[in-house]
Amino acid sequence: MGNITLKLFGKTLKNPVMNASGTLGYGKEIEPLWGVETLGCYVTKGLSMKPHHGNPLPRIWEERCGMINSIGLQNIGVERFFEEYFPFFKRKKTPIIINFFGFTEDEYIGCAQKIKPDRQIIALEMNLSCPNIKKGGISFGKEADTVYEIVRNVKAVTKIPLLAKLTPEVKNIVEIAVAAYEAGADGLTLINTIPAAVVDVNKRTVPIKGGLSGPVVRSVALRAVYECSKAVPIPVVGVGGIMDTQDAVAFLMAGAHAIQIGTATFIDPYKIPKIIEELREYLDVHGYAGIENIIGITHDQ
Amino acid sequence: MVDTEAQIIENKNVVLDYFLLRLKPAKTMGKIMPGQFVMLKIPGNEVFLRRPFSIYDYDMGILTIMYKVVGKGTELLSKTGKDTLTSVLGPLGNGFHVNQRDAYLTVAGGIGIAGIHFLVKSLKEKASVFFGCSSHIETALLEDIANLNPMVSTLDGSYGYKGNVVEMLKNHLETTENIDREIFVCGPEGMLKNLKTSINKNKISCQALVEERMACGLGLCFGCVKKTIDENEPYKRVCKEGPVFDLWEISL
Prior knowledge:
The structure holds 2 protein chains of 2 kinds. By secondary structure, chain A is an alpha/beta fold. Helices cover 30% and strands 23% of the residues of chain A. In chain A, strand 13 and strand 14 form a beta hairpin. The two termini of chain A are 28 Å apart. The longest helix of chain B has 11 residues. Chain B is globular. In chain B, 44% of the residues are buried. The chains are: A alpha/beta, B alpha/beta.
């Protein structure tokens, strides 16, 4: 059988498949169907220093080939996560990435400081799509200098490898990727959802503004992965509209070291274990010894 | 909980926009609590998120859902023919808890009957059924439980009590005080709000089945929350902590 294990930040993951942050609850919710130990790595819901209640309804909307969400980062806070859920991942020996966010730079720093290194924590994933209160609501991830500053300042307070999760809502994502790398990011997660809205033509209202995900964003994500992974020498985790094994392979070939599945889980809750199994078959059928043989294979063109 | 292929045995129009869908899942659904729901794949490729439906009935391995055409998903479902294969995930969520009481009052508004029916069926004669709808035409939805003599209110006064179901229930409550009773309700938010205001003084136990747009049905995405009166946890997931909530704990 083809080997789907891979090394990420010096740790061995049993496969390159993760869930996208916020699409697998706190982990335990999927247990009636399959166990989190199936994942190469579990990615937490976005955690903040203090519990955050999220947005009013509606929070989700189905669009053609995509969905819009406006959950608003509801979460129980980083402390309660470590008290109530982290022991579950320890028991299951499941590697974990802690996704976190803040509305001020201090909140990002405070959150990163609260997370103590642990051999099961593979990385911190900082969500740079949050509105920066001080800058009038412009997201932290939109300007290269802001990204550089916040990544550098967070990096200074943690020994855990740091993934910068970038928003695609920028003029030049490669420039932002380079800024994150130069500030000390150990890897990049590309991309986050794309800002979108719905108009209800009968009611003449905008019922929801939020982040677009699903198949409709896949090619945007693929381009970001392809170009950024060529531009910076740090691992890239690809996410955005991966619906099947073919899509997963495309992201790996475009330069992603690992991939995250989000919306596809809502359509088929068994999608993650299916893709993991089919990646093995893919390597066998195509004669690759290991998954690392296809990562960035398109870069040699 | 299972995720299984299911064959459509019947998909019939009951009356107006109301349909009854009977499915034969390939695997047994296991034990189902009244009030629980399933996530159903709408056949075809036009919509991709599954849709939540209350379990109307589950008997001899046949799953029944009653639905009303309200959007694209249910419209496509209404046009799906017999023998079509689809998939169901369930049973999901927390259903009604039947505590030991002297009387059980089940209250449904319109398509809310879809969420109450399985409970009514399990309580049999112990249940008093209150059903509110627009006109006598919708009483066709009660055919299956006609033997329980449901009390009906119609807004146009064409059948039963003229007015809304909450007024009808309130009149009943006033004539039957000092009984240890519990209300089980499913209906539109306005009706729940009206009910909460109307019976507040008496503080009668009341379990409400609520509906919300859902993506996963499993508690993964936090998309289908209901506002609660708990300041520490103001949003609870309908799919995970619900869909049945204590009426007094939700904010309407």
